[in-house]
Design a protein that fits this description.
This protein is α+β, with helices and mostly antiparallel strands. About 25% of the residues lie in helices and about 25% in strands. A hairpin with a 5-residue loop joins strand 8 (about 170-175) and strand 9.
Amino acid sequence: MFKFIRSQISALILASLAFPGVAVAQGCIQRIDDATGIYRDGSFAQQVRFITTYFSQISERDIYNSKGGRLSTYRQILQQDRANVNRFGLRDYVNMSDGETDANGNLVEWKMWDDTDDFFTTPQRRALLTTMPLIFNCNDQGRPDDHENSADFLFWTRAMAKGQVPGTLMLMVIPLPQGGYGFHFSFVG
């Protein structure tokens, strides 16, 4: 038993060295809808109501900070996106379509704008994006279906760092049962 506990503590220490300042989350989220989900961590499961859910477009302006410096991590870019939307009122959009056409055969399109949110409204709250745990979806066994070092995750976050995200990002802030917040995001489209 002590050997198992030592190995778990060692794994957490190694993870904290690999990602300094970033909390390590063991749990995952099984979404029920855009407002609720079930947070799972091993045999523990609890229904949670998301603090906020929003859709965002990551654009060229989001990969530079307010002083013009290039940002290098997806967490910094998410933080800047929220500053652009909530502080500066700079909302990006993409043209969307579901393939439907109008009576004249023209493709029906609409603009999908950055959503505002009521959580990342202060510099202190936006700074949480650099340290709060990232929560992945649960797989069929109730475990995280991905991790921050997977090829798929790195592909998307590197595309984000280049401002080349095709589609929309959906982000949810999740209250953690042990206190504090985590966040989950996925690419839509």
